Every structure is written in structure tokens, then in C-alpha cells.
Amino acid sequence: LTEADLEAQRLIVGGLTTAFPDLPIVGEEDESLAGETLPEIQPDLKKVDFKTPPSFENAVWSDFCAVVDPLDGTKQFCLSKFFAVSVLIGVTFKGQPAIGVIYEPWRVCDDGSQGLTTWDVVGMERKGPDHVWWPEKKQKKIEGERESLVIAVGDKPMKAVLGNIVNLLKEKREEGEGERGEKVIHVGATGHKLAKICRGEANCYLQDPNACCRWDICAGEAIFRARGGFLGDLNGKIYKYDPNPSANHENDGGVLALSYPSEHLEHVLGVTKNNFDECDVIKHTNGEPIT
């Protein structure tokens, strides 16, 4: 924990509270800032032109909850690896991710500007070039063969659970399930991994149980759902988001994220779970929040 984490949460939660005083908020640093009076900050709000999803009609503020990771990648921040640092803001609707924002403040964009925002809304009607699905696949598939996995894992040595999963996936490929080998890339910080999938630099993210929390994945999960992807635990089950700040927010089942679940979900769960048919899996989101 650094002063940067605390100050970032003060600014973000202070701004959200000023703009939306009735919006429940859960932040990573709530415990450290307990009892502190938040600053009144007038955020620079910009109206986004999109049609409100049908599920939001007649909603009340208590149906929503903002889930904030004010500085994802604290270790990378301390090591001056700023490219891996991001701000993650998700909004849940009735306990499930519905709006997601990943902001990478140090990323240099194609036009030379600094700071990249990736966002999406589950159920949003898509308009214009900014409202896209996943980037086009870079590899041309052989007919009948699924796209090879590019698996993003942490930059630390993998623990037993995750190491076994990755090794088994490699073994399945070596046994003849396709011609391309699975590729593993080591990436620091959860938000950075999820952003890489959004940019098409990976298509799978695996994380050990209890290695991250809901505020690490909420924004990414909303973006994934909006674009037809999947994010849940290593058993293929989706997480429930509790608006109570004192609740247990750890991802005790680990994390499995896929941009193309129709191609990869059954294959990966064949390794991570024995019985695929019993999984509480989102096979077809149809752009609507799960309630």
C-alpha cells in the first residue's frame, strides 16, 4: 500500500460521491480510509451517446454499486513499471458487472497522446468505430481448428494450481489437439492482463485462487460480457458482487477470462474442471446483465 493508492481512491471516490451521491461504492482502500472525510471534487463529466440498456429502465440507485481499484499494479508502480499500472472502475447492477472502465494513464496511444481508456456497457447498442467487439484475430485459422490460446499469467512463479493447469493445457496441445502450441506470457497486474486481452494481445487470463479481489476484475468482467467474452472462476462459475464494503471480496476460486468462450471455454474447463456440464457458465450473454 502506498500514499498513491490512498490519494487515488480519495480523488476517485470523492468525485463519484459528488456526482452521484446515492451510488453505493466499494473501494480497495476502504479499510485504510475508514472514518476519513472524502474531498468534495467536481468531476469533469462527459456525456456518452448510447442508448440505455433495457435492464436499467426503472432501476434505482441501490441496484448499482461502483467497484473501484484506484491503482492496480502497486508493485509495478513502485518499480517504475508504469506501463502495467491502471485504474479500474466497474459498476455492478443487481450484483453483476454491467459497466467497465480500464484507464491506463501511462500508455502512449497510436496518435501519440498519453492515457488510454477502454470501456463498455453490457447491453449497450453499439455505434461507431469506438464501440467494437474484440480486435480481429491476427492468425488465420485452419478450417476445423480452434484459435490457439495466448495465456496471460502473473509475472511471479506460478503456484501449484495454476502451474498444473498451464502444463496440462500444453500437454493436451502436444497430444495432437491442433497444430499451434499454447503460448504463455507473464504479465504483471490484473488490469494490465485484462487490457491486453481487450487489445487482442492475449485471449486467456488465468489466476490462482485468492490472488486477487473483486475490484481487480469487475471492470474487466463488464467489458468482457459486453463483448461476448467470459470471466469467472477456474470452475467456470460467475462471481457475485456484494455492495457491503466489509464483505469478503477475494476471488477464492481463482480467475478464468476468455475473449472467445465459444472456442476455448470447454477446452480450458476440460482441464480446470472435471464436469463441464455442471458449470454455471455464461454461454450466451446476448448483451444483457445476468440477474
Mean pLDDT, to the nearest integer, reads 83
User: What is the fold named in CATH at topology level of the largest domain?
Assistant: D-Maltodextrin-Binding Protein, domain 2
Please write the CATH class name of the largest domain: Alpha Beta
Order of helices and strands: HEEHEEEEHEHEHEEH
Low-confidence stretches: 128-132, 137-143, 274-291
Trace the largest sheet across and list its strands: 1-2-3-4-5
Percentage of residues in helical conformation = 10-25%
Q: Determine the number of helices (DSSP H or I, runs of at least 4 residues).
A: 6
**Multimeric state of these chains?**
single chain
Largest sheet at a glance? 5 strands, mixed
Computed structural class: alpha/beta
From the spread of the alpha carbons, the general shape counts as globular
Number of strands: 10
Number of discrete domains:
2
What is the CATH architecture descriptor of the largest domain?
Answer: 3-Layer(aba) Sandwich
Separation of termini? Answer: 34 Å
Q: What percent of residues are in strands?
A: 15-25%
